[in-house]
From TrEMBL:
Domain Tetrapyrrole methylase residue range list: 17-218
Pfam families named among the record's database cross-references: RsmI_C, TP_methylase
Function: Catalyzes the 2'-O-methylation of the ribose of cytidine 1402 (C1402) in 16S rRNA.
Entry-linked HAMAP family: 16SrRNA_methyltr_I
Family: Belongs to the methyltransferase superfamily. RsmI family.
Name by which UniProt lists this protein: Ribosomal RNA small subunit methyltransferase I
Catalysis performed (reactions): cytidine(1402) in 16S rRNA + S-adenosyl-L-methionine = 2'-O-methylcytidine(1402) in 16S rRNA + S-adenosyl-L-homocysteine + H(+)
The organism of origin for this protein: Paralimibaculum aggregatum
Classification via NCBIfam families: 16S rRNA (cytidine(1402)-2'-O)-methyltransferase
EC numbers for this chain: 2.1.1.198
Swiss-Prot/TrEMBL keywords: Cytoplasm, Methyltransferase, rRNA processing, S-adenosyl-L-methionine, Transferase
Amino acid sequence: MAPAGAPVAAGSLAPGLYLVATPIGNAADISLRALDILARAEVLAAEDTRRTRKLMQIHGIALGERPIVSYHDQNGPARRPQIMGWLAEGRSVAYCSDAGTPLVADPGYRLAEAALAAGHGLTAVPGASAVLAALSVSGLPSDRFLFAGFLPPKAGARRAALAELAAVPATLVFYESPRRLGAALAEMAEVLGARPAAVARELTKLHEEVVRGALPDLAARYAAADPRGEIVVVIGPPDRAAQAAEAALSLDGALAEAMAHASLKDAVKQTAERLGLPRKQVYARALELGRED
């Protein structure tokens, strides 16, 4: 097998799996390299073969006699052995997700994992990404962000997932279903507070829309709305000053509760263990509260 990055003869590709990013809406948002890979790969695999065929037709790429197979969440376990067989024969296989970059909220992860485990080459052909596009136009901090994919569909599990992410010191990015958007935004406002946020819909498409505002305002806007298309929700990071103030209030309350029925030493010990804080920090705050009293 040729090493990664090795030159290949015209009209052929080095054996291995190629993860090809495709447009998230506008068909022009595809790289020249991606078109070259789609034209030269010996086998094509796609989350939706119809969309990949249409993309190739738009850009004048003939499929010819090359095999093209579907690979998605439902048929992945059954389809993987076939694709792995082609890789074992030394063929080049290009995999495309429905839209955007493969492996980002996409079934291609298991295929890439299997290819690496078997010692095959794995090559990224980067391009469009709904996550990065939404982050770019959100107007929110982009130096640090966490992509959390789709939240659970049920309200209780969704709140629990949001609670786990509440303290993450980064901008949060989610995919969301149009029919669940109103309920999800309401719970985001409830759990995360009035953070700045953006709802990006149909990015790069004819009806692209980006609505920015505080989470409660966005929740009210979409409470009775019937949005269509692909949606990405971007939420700003927590306010550090507010977090510090909230933490101080929690510490003060826990100390007051413990000191009501225990000595200073025992109250400090109990509070430090309860909140997971250094005992020295808790003791210093206890002395401050004592002086204030």
